[in-house]
Design a protein that fits this description.
With 104 residues, the chain is mainly α. The protein has 5 helices and no strands. It is 59% helix and 0% strand. The chain is globular, with a radius of gyration of 17 Å.
Length: 104
């Protein structure tokens, strides 16, 4: 009989206000991405790519917080330039507003 080895994942989560604010920004980015794909527009693939470039590392940051920090998280959020896209949310502002609310 084969012995089974348990795989143990070591996760280090950020403080709860940072986790909550980052997950809210990610949630809003995913909803926004879903919504823009419903509209035929030549810029949509580039806009989706810009969004994913900004957000693709954030889940890893959140589960390996000991290797990352708030400045690095903010840097990635700023990678999506909302001013390039009409009607795009400012995800840095979404994050910062929620972080401020939760830190009071």
């Amino acid at each position: 009989m084969k012995k089974r080895t348990k795989l143990r994942l070591a996760m280090t989560l950020p403080p709860e206000p940072i986790l909550d604010a980052a997950l809210l920004a990610l949630h809003r980015a995913l909803i926004y991405t879903r919504n823009i794909t419903l509209h035929p527009d030549a810029s949509t693939p580039k806009q989706v790519n810009d969004l994913m470039e900004a957000f693709h590392e954030i889940p890893d940051f959140l589960v390996h917080w000991d290797k990352h920090d708030l400045d690095e998280l903010r840097l990635h959020l700023r990678c999506f330039d909302h001013t390039r896209w009409i009607g795009a949310p400012d995800f840095v502002q979404v994050f910062e507003t929620r972080l401020t609310e939760l830190s009071k």
